Amino acid sequence: MAASAAEPGPTEAARIIMHVDMDAFFASVELKRQPALRGQPVIVGGRGDPSRRGVVSTATYEARVFGIHSGMPLRTAARLCPDAVFLPVDFPAYHAASAQVFDCLAAVSERLQPVGLDEAYLDISARTDDPLAVGRQLKATIHATTDLVASVGIGPNRLLAKIASDLEKPDGLTWLRRADMRERVWPLPVRTLHGVGPRTAERLAGLGVECVGDLAALPLEQLTAEFSPRHAQSLMASAQGIDERPVQTERIRKSIGRERTFQADCRSSGRLDHEARLMLERVCEQLRERRLGARTVTVKLRYRDFTTHTRSRSLTEPTDGMETLAALVHQCLFAHRLHRAVRLLGVQLSGLVASDSDGRPTGD
Ligand SMILES: [Mg+2]
């Protein structure tokens, strides 16, 4: 937490964060399959039948003009826009499109934090090229690969990058600096800020706060009278465009690991311990090849009756150090009931984080 809301934190000054958000994602995937629907109000939700229960997942911009938004009951949407085309949700199709989009994102930066199927934060601080050029190129690549349109926001942190990606949607490309706060962010409703939900917004309205600028102008004492000191501090920081949250890259790859099924069930804890170590050595090689550190170790055992159990241990800091990880593997293994016959042993590393250039994993 920054000591003063007026000054950026030391780590923040150098960061460049990009927020990529696909425009009307589900609906756009549907339009790709049914180009004849382009230009029409299209609503994706539930079983695609407004006479049955269900809510709007995504609507095209042509439908949003009628006041239709995500989470609205399909019945209401049909009333607001009787001519809309309703389509059922098809998750396998959206997952496939999402995988293509994330391949494009991963090529820009490995420091990538997915948010659902159609959004992600990228930390592009390490890139030396112009952030706007990076954004423009990424949008072009996504469009060429998937025929879908993304909005890109760039900022000094996640808070402003996310606000930026929304400012010129659809097909937006916006760079928001903290110096732009007064002009571009302060006029926005306070709900725009991360962490301001309906209840917080209601309490803020009680203090006369409607837009972000109202919040920025509010004396801290008034906020602390209504909210906990911590909540008040974080609201005040948000109103000033300050956000220290790192891009959480550990979900780039979920895990790496190995499994081994024994020819004959294994009943020796000494042998399991030895095998687990050999497997870890191989996995650690992969870890270093990919310049990653791991925070969590999981050991899986499948017994003769096919019941499967896992035990995990986590570190506070990621590492690629063999001995540190081996100690965790040993702990996990002996947390299992080892007197039973084991048919399969698995060792897995997760909580993976990109290492920096000298091979040492970094915290975020
Ligand atoms: Mg989106």
TrEMBL record:
One of its GO terms (cellular component) is cytosol. GO terms for biological process: DNA repair; DNA-templated DNA replication; error-prone translesion synthesis; SOS response. Its main location: cytoplasm. The record marks F26 as: Substrate discrimination. It is found in: Cytoplasm. Its EC number is 2.7.7.7. Binds 2 magnesium ions per subunit. The keyword Magnesium applies. SUPFAM superfamilies: DNA/RNA polymerases (SSF56672), Lesion bypass DNA polymerase (Y-family), little finger domain (SSF100879). CDD domains: PolY_Pol_IV_kappa. It catalyses: DNA(n) + a 2'-deoxyribonucleoside 5'-triphosphate = DNA(n+1) + diphosphate. InterPro entries: DNA/RNA_pol_sf, DNA_pol_Y-fam_lit_finger_sf, DNA_pol_Y-fam_little_finger, DNA_polymerase-Y, DNApol_IV, IMS_HHH_1, Rev_trsase/Diguanyl_cyclase, UmuC. Its cofactor is Mg(2+). Mg(2+) binds at D21, D118. The active site is at E119. Keywords: Cytoplasm, DNA damage, DNA repair, DNA replication, DNA-binding, DNA-directed DNA polymerase, Magnesium, Metal-binding, Mutator protein, Nucleotidyltransferase, Transferase. The keyword Kinase does not apply. Belongs to the DNA polymerase type-Y family. Poorly processive, error-prone DNA polymerase involved in untargeted mutagenesis. Copies undamaged DNA at stalled replication forks, which arise in vivo from mismatched or misaligned primer ends. These misaligned primers can be extended by PolIV. Exhibits no 3'-5' exonuclease (proofreading) activity. May be involved in translesional synthesis, in conjunction with the beta clamp from PolIII. PANTHER family: DNA POLYMERASE KAPPA, DNA REPAIR POLYMERASE UMUC / TRANSFERASE FAMILY MEMBER. Monomer. This is DNA polymerase IV. It comes from Spiribacter curvatus.
